[in-house]
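Reply to dn_fold:

You asked what the input looked like. This is it:
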Amino acid sequence: MTLFDLEREHILNTLVTTGWRMEETANSLGVSTSTLKAKLKIHNIPYTDEEKCKTIIAGINRMKLSAIRVFLSSMNTKTLREVLEFAESNYDNRTYCTFFKHKPFLLLVDELKAR
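and this is what came back:
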C-alpha cells in the first residue's frame, strides 16, 4: 500500500467516523475544509449522496451493534435517512448491507426512524 493509498483510506475512515460532516472531518484531520475538498478531488472521492452512504455503510459493517447505535444516533437526521434509504434499496447487495439483515439492527433502525 502506498502513502497515497494510506492517505485516501484515512480520509475515508475519518469521513465515516464524522458522518461525512466536512468541517468536523477537516478539523479531525487537521486541515481546512478547502484542503479537504481538494484532497477529495485528488483521491477521486466523489462527494455524492451515494458515495457518502456506501462509505458510511462500509464503516458500519465493521462495527459492533453498540457502536452502531452511538454512531447512528450522532448523525444528523438528513444523513441518517439517506443512509437508511440507501441500505433499504440495496438490501440484496451483500457488499453494502450485511448488517441490515440482523434483527437487533432492524430494531435500532425502527427506533431511529421514529425520531
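Residues 26 and 106 are 32 Å apart (CA to CA).
Hope that clears it up.
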